[in-house]
Specification:
Elements (H helix, E strand, L loop, with lengths): L8 E7 L2 E8 L2 E6 L7 E4 H6 L1 H21 L19
Antiparallel strand pairs: 1-2, 2-3, 3-4
Length: about 90
């Protein structure tokens, strides 16, 4: 018989060369970089079981690809224009 998870359980894990803290509690799990306060990954058990977590992971992956593509794209140079004079308001 398994022990009930009624309080937070923390462990350290190495991912590649980076240390992380894994926290598992009755609400879900969190993966936080060692020495950081904000979790890099946070999953609630309900989201994991309903498939919401997989959808969120896929969405975040697609957004991070888009944002990196936008950052890497060269900025367009504006056409050489002369500045316009401000329009006068009809009064």
């Amino acid at each position: 018989m398994a022990t009930a998870l009624d309080k937070e359980l923390r462990r350290t894990v190495m991912v590649g060369d980076e240390p992380y803290t894994v926290a598992i509690d009755p609400e879900g799990l969190r993966l936080t970089g060692k020495g950081k306060r904000k979790p890099e990954v946070a999953l609630r058990w309900r989201d994991l079981l309903s498939g919401e977590a997989a959808l969120a992971v896929a969405l975040n992956a697609s957004l991070s690809k888009e944002s990196s593509a936008v950052r890497e794209a060269p900025a367009e140079q504006p056409a050489d224009r002369t500045p316009r004079k401000p329009r006068k308001r009809a009064g």
